[in-house]
Every structure is written in C-alpha cells, then in structure tokens.
Amino acid sequence: MNFSRTLFLVAISAASLFAQDLDTSAGALIGVKPGDAQFNHTTWIAPLNVTSGMPAIQNIFVVAGTDVAGLPCFNCVNSIVPSVGIVSPSGTLVRGSAYQLNNFYVDNKFTGTCGFTLSIIDSTNTPVVTATFNFGVSAGNVGIISTKYTVPTTAAVGTGKVSSSIKCGLVKAATSSSVYLQ
Q1: Of 52, 125, 147, 156, whose CB count within 10 A is highest?
Q2: Number of domains in the chain
C-alpha cells in the first residue's frame, strides 16, 4: 500500500457535523502559474461548546501531500462521524511535482470575511508558493481550505515548511508544519 496516496484520518472531537458548503474562489498567487492552483473552501456546521475565553478562530493544522481526488472531505471515512479525510501528509516535497495543501480551522465566534494565506517556505525562509484568498465564514463552523500547486524547481533544497495564516477582522491565527524540499 502506498502510504502517500492513502487517506489520512483525523477524528474531530466534536458532535456530529453536517451542512456542507463549497466555495471555489481564486486569489492572488506567488510562484504559481495561472491555472495551476485551484481553491476549495469546505465548511460544516458543528455544535461547538464555545465559552467566553475561547479564541474566535483556531488554525488547527496545515499539511501538504500527494493530490487525491475527493479530498479533503468531512464524514467520509468508513461511515465514521465525525471524521475528516485529508491528503496523507508528506514529509518530503519534490521540486517540480504537484501537491495538495489542506488547512483545517475552527470558527468559534467570527462571522464575516476572512483572509487565508497558504505558503510553502523553502530552507532559506523564502516563500516559494503563496496563495492568498478571501472566504466568508460563520461562527459555529469547522472548515478546510484546500489548494493544489506545483513546487517550483527553483525552491532551495532542505528543511522548509508549509504554513497557514488566517485573518478575520482583528483576529489572527497561524500554524505550520515542517517539510523537506528536494
């Protein structure tokens, strides 16, 4: 079994999730040729147990992996509810190859438009792929941002990262994961 092509399951500790909404808006791109990137924003209403001390937005994780049709998805793994299907995280990204980047977030309290930025940063701390776009969000939802891209052959070899930042009004949240570019 090729692990890089298998479905990676992340179980969400929330009550049942439902009401999917798909938005495919494009945004500003750096290091990505027009037509190379596709953007998806999938959300599910989740009965969250929000308290006054919780952050409005939580940027939970970002991963890069081999592009697999049908991913990401909610409640799509062996009838497990709740569950999230994402690309299998790759520890190594090969320059010149195509990948999918998945970013999972929880919206506890914010309703409005948020700016999302997904990046691949090489070993010299240079962003070699950056995708920036805006989506409307609603409090009480969990969401996955997904984009497809090709890692530029000019990216520096070595340990880098994939990163995500979300800005909703004055609220900011960020996360990143280490990757090796070769």
Answers
A1: 147
A2: 1
CB atoms within 10 A of CB 25: 11
Tens place of pLDDT for every residue, the chain, 182 residues?
A: 333 333 333 333 232 232 333 333 333 333 433 334 456 778 777 778 888 899 999 999 999 999 988 889 888 888 888 888 999 999 999 999 999 999 999 999 999 999 999 999 999 999 999 988 888 999 999 999 899 889 999 999 999 999 999 999 999 999 999 999 99
Residue with tokens 């195509």: 98
Tokens 């692990």 appear where? 3
Q: Can you give the CATH number for the domain in which 132 is found?
A: 2.60.40.10
- Residue 109's domain comprises 3-181
